Amino acid sequence: MNLDYIIPNKWSILEEGFDPDHVKASESLFSIGNGAMGQRANFEEKYSGPTFQGSYIAGVYYPDKTKVGWWKNGYPEYFAKVLNAPSWIGINVTINGEELDLFACKSVKNFRRELNMKEGWLSRSFVATLQNDIEVEVSSKRFLSLDLDEVGAINFSIKPLNSDAEITFQPYIDAGITNEDTNWDDKFWDVLNVTRENNQAFIQAKTMKTEFHTCTFMESQVYVDGELLSNEPTFTEGTSYAAFSYTNKVKQNETYSIHKFGGYTVDRNHSKNELISAAKKSLEKAKTTGFTQMLEDQKQAWAQIWDMADITIDGDVKAQQGIRFNIFHLNQTYLGTDATLNIGPKGFTGEKYGGSTYWDTEAYCIPFYMATKDQEVARNLLTYRYNHLEKAIENAEKLGFTNGAALYPMVTMNGEESHNEWEITFEEIHRNGAIAYAIFNYYRYTGDFSYIPEMGLEVLIAIARFWHQRANYSTQKNKYVILGVTGPNEYENNVNNNWYTNYIAEWCINYAIEMIDKVKAGHPNDYKRISGKTKITHEEVSAWKKVADNMYYPYSEEHKVYLQQDGFLDKELITVEDLDQSQRPINQKWSWDRILRSPYIKQADTLQGFYFFEDQFTTEELERHFDFYEPFTVHESSLSPCVHSIQAAKLNRMNQAYTFYLRTSRLDLDDYNHEVHEGLHITSMAGTWMSIVEGFGGMRVKNDSLSFEPRIPEQWKGYSFKVNFRNQIVKVSVKQNETQFELEGDKELQIMVNGKEVTISPDNSVVI
Amino acid sequence: MNLDYIIPNKWSILEEGFDPDHVKASESLFSIGNGAMGQRANFEEKYSGPTFQGSYIAGVYYPDKTKVGWWKNGYPEYFAKVLNAPSWIGINVTINGEELDLFACKSVKNFRRELNMKEGWLSRSFVATLQNDIEVEVSSKRFLSLDLDEVGAINFSIKPLNSDAEITFQPYIDAGITNEDTNWDDKFWDVLNVTRENNQAFIQAKTMKTEFHTCTFMESQVYVDGELLSNEPTFTEGTSYAAFSYTNKVKQNETYSIHKFGGYTVDRNHSKNELISAAKKSLEKAKTTGFTQMLEDQKQAWAQIWDMADITIDGDVKAQQGIRFNIFHLNQTYLGTDATLNIGPKGFTGEKYGGSTYWDTEAYCIPFYMATKDQEVARNLLTYRYNHLEKAIENAEKLGFTNGAALYPMVTMNGEESHNEWEITFEEIHRNGAIAYAIFNYYRYTGDFSYIPEMGLEVLIAIARFWHQRANYSTQKNKYVILGVTGPNEYENNVNNNWYTNYIAEWCINYAIEMIDKVKAGHPNDYKRISGKTKITHEEVSAWKKVADNMYYPYSEEHKVYLQQDGFLDKELITVEDLDQSQRPINQKWSWDRILRSPYIKQADTLQGFYFFEDQFTTEELERHFDFYEPFTVHESSLSPCVHSIQAAKLNRMNQAYTFYLRTSRLDLDDYNHEVHEGLHITSMAGTWMSIVEGFGGMRVKNDSLSFEPRIPEQWKGYSFKVNFRNQIVKVSVKQNETQFELEGDKELQIMVNGKEVTISPDNSVVI
């Protein structure tokens, strides 16, 4: 734990007292978003201290020219960067001629910041004494509307406490924006025009290269003690800037406030020529509704999300705060309504990692969205990959594959690869497996087979083709081997026969064959279309099968475990416990070669396979592998603790499971990885949800039914969660001695609890 | 072969006819150098067509800020770039107001370019018709003086053929120079001042960051029909530019010529404040000697070099031209008088690869310099590494090594690493072995043991320490293993137990121990100093020995060969012959992962070990390994064919040896690798020399004696070479039926020929 200034609270993230050293971390932690846009918790007024400014629009990115030390054939020309967008939140405040700036005040008292997760708003209040000795009380409240997702609203108030004052609010919009993360210091935005109409201002700007057209807009109203003022503002404009000024003499203890509405219209939703008129419509709706009613609507909208997605934890405020923080940010990032969007690793909270889509989506996020939203949401995430299939085939062609084999990119925005380290881009190919697995997982959970004949089977065929070609026959071993890969544990590069990769390759082929047969039998017309398009033949499938049936797996007879890769046992097998702690984290202390030849594991690798394919191994096998690999695992990926928490719970090691749970759920709140100022770890937040539902709750889908093996950490009195299973809502409440199952739905549901069949019905809760 | 416009000639490189498409290639091929400076064969007069301008000063480099895609701990902050230096060769020529520019003339006839390797000069002549219809005959001759190594001289003449003409020569010096190879488009030179004194001009400039101070200078004289003119030139200067203009009315068929002397003084040889006065002295010497006499001196100086270094080939002009081209360029690049300089991979012919020193020096260049120069030269090359020992220890510390272990850099200028690909920088550690091997090789060849107690032993100890720490014990194998390396075959990265690396590691430890014992016994005072400094103990040496004695080697019982690395036999073993030729060269056609998992070998790897340690294997073993590995070798490194040529010769496969020989000796002349425009492959040129002397001549040192097993390709009538063996010169002349041995020296010499002892003496040549 590296930060602990966040005040524990069940429903809010709270900070009290102003510390400039916390500003960047808080800007990340208090970020707000509504799926369509998001922003770091930057101050509205000027701030001259260290800050990391960030506003982001979903789907708007920039193809930054790739930077490499040494070019390798097949590298992508560009890296898709998350783009810092024009800002609409700014309100310069001048009090008797002095600008309000928390970094330059004489004193700041009663500073308080709150991210109210229950209701979806951010607030801030403080009392500041300026250099001119005027003391003012300031408060602001801000949110990005879930209902009107192009609009955000701010209520910013100021009250002079020790004298009358002349106060100016200068709300502005600014498109003179740069990225911190840029390879070549390129300019990313091209401002097209700045226009004003009455009290509204608009800046039209497009991104360079990708030519995303956007309109950033604002309109404000000012009040004294709640009474609307009608004085006309003055207007200032620059080439990429527009501002209104509202100046008023304010009496001591009067409250001068401004309601500012702003946001973006973008050409994903409107035609380029109608961005301003769309903006006007949005502003009109916001103004008509008014700040107060919009905030009410916001609370309602979040209440609906929480009703389904909330997890309660009784008796452990920090754990409760942690899980809600994770669920809240996931929902701020992606709401699932758009199949062209995805879940970026930093969401709307920072620029790092570029791209928007990693295998995190399939491996970690889909279970969360499947269980807490309508199935359409998970289907959209699958459709996203289906829409990128053609580009994945092109990507594989660049690497020498043929016949419609697909390799999905490691990182992407639009389906094209944007990563460029050969050991990752070209070799971390197990990502293909996660994409097939997500199809299987979706079908298993939702029972919605229709996705497979409609879209999924084409993806499965292209992935099976890849594995078939990527494996080669070793005469030496009389088996098929997969050489030169990087597994989920990125602390090994270019290894041979990574067990996880080989296993998922075999699984992908077998699953593709199974689905081919099922579609052929049950959806002959779809099969005809697909086989016409893919030119799949019986001979080809037989060739795949030969590879799957003869896959090689490194195994240790001595330890009775599958080996992470060929040669793993040649390493110096010192456990993490016995490693000098001054050497941690090894990714900051050691050179890359040293990391590679060490036995240390960044995140679940062999154990990731045991997580995905749990049914195919006994608990004893899981235990043996867990005991063999976990001691070498440094968990230096945010994606590591959750899988281990789930497995520790399954092995009834609740203390260990609880420790992993805390680490995953408060990763950012407590800044375990020394990097929260750069933004939050959004995708791993879904892993936290899995730790509770799959880990402690022991939820699985078996034979078309939900199955639970509830456990509870001794630190908790109880916890509860809901899952949407095939359009019925099951609520699970676990206490130290009993578990209650409730059903919101219209028909009885058979579930399994600790291996026994239980029937729950809408009227009767069941306690076990 | 991709270019064949160079006219075969025994002593010259010749080009006839002007083709703008050949300009860049010829600029490389006709490059001149004198060890202290060098330059591409750029034209003196303006040339508006495609050209790659380059002038280089030995030891002057720039630490260009490293460019990486993803930073890894331990990467160097900068990459030492070969620096394009201010130019002194330029002479603008104006004829009746029109600038002479071969790319803009109406016609060019009788174009001829010659690099006279025997005498060490470059000439060019042509007849051009300008747009103004004046026809002129132009000739130039240029050389960089071996005697006055700060000075070069140009004789540039022009004769109007069809009318009188007003002609201006405008000789200039220019420090407004940029690099083509720059990571961030930085400016590398900072011009301090431009000064004129009478007919001399000077530009003082220093490199940014490294602050190498240089003075570029010139002085010229003009003549009509050989008669010195005394008219005063006009002077023009800019912030980084100085020019004189000499304008004269020249009658039809009169020859107007200019002798221009120019060059550099640098602060490696003079104090910073005396660069101009040193330049004046150099100019004074050059002017006093005069162009004609300087050229005479140049011929003499080159005659001396050739007397020792020449290899003659009778009956094969292209082979003759090839070998002399290689020997000539090696001598232009490095003359061995300065232990702070080394042999850059492109010498003074281009910018690529940066740095100046790779393991090429120890593995390929030292044998050439040992045999064709005084032993002091090879000793200087060894001393260069001794002087960098401290930085090699620091480099190893950055990678986690302790106790004075050294890892020499992959690429360096000043001893610091300047390479940044983890798989090379951190893992291609066999380079340490080549540095130890060069010490062994030097002692074996020269018999000069003194280097070892004076300097070599410290290097050997630091290298042995590295290997001891780098290996780890595998309980699985009950042996020591070396994990995560890149061998000489860079088409494999991060492999385990590269046989060559393991072998040379063991050898380094054993050789260090042997030398410790020898120094301890024979030079107790030196040993005392060294052991005091290195704190070497008996216990430490025992620990080394344990590693050396228990080193693991991958071996195939089936093929009876050592395996290049663990898992080599799992590859798809299709030979190069059976590989679709459209896929070649694979480094241009395939993505990196595909190269890595293929069996294809870039350059000798296991066979490099068989080359270095030939005595430790039987000819049958060599044959088995050659037959196993060569068929998978694509020879896509310039360093590949020579080792294979030597081994093919040893195996009596003369046709194959000859094919490899042609490929290495005419690599650049025939542009096998499509890249001669970027500069020449200087270090591999020493491999060509080895192909003849060690390959065809079969020269080895065995038991302190020279040994020969002469062979001759059927395409040749005969060949001859000389070697300096311990201050006696042995000349070997091989014909189809006999070999003659002659001795220049003062005492009898025992040599071995085809395994039999032969005595040669200064008076009596021996024919066998």
From TrEMBL, chains A, B:
Domain Glycoside hydrolase family 65 C-terminal: 699-759
Active site: 490
SUPFAM superfamilies: Galactose mutarotase-like, Six-hairpin glycosidases
Residue ranges occupied by any Glycoside hydrolase family 65 N-terminal domain in the UniProt entry: 15-267
Pfam family, one: Glyco_hydro_65C
InterPro entries (UniProt xref): 6-hairpin_glycosidase_sf (IPR008928), 6hp_glycosidase-like_sf (IPR012341), Gal_mutarotase_sf_dom (IPR011013), GH65_N (IPR037018), Glyco_hydro_65_C (IPR005194), Glyco_hydro_65_M (IPR005195), Glyco_hydro_65_N (IPR005196), Malt_Pase/Glycosyl_Hdrlase (IPR017045)
Highest taxon above the source species: Bacteria
BP terms from Gene Ontology: carbohydrate metabolic process
Family statement: Belongs to the glycosyl hydrolase 65 family.
Protein name listed in UniProt: Maltose phosphorylase
Record organism: Winogradskyella epiphytica
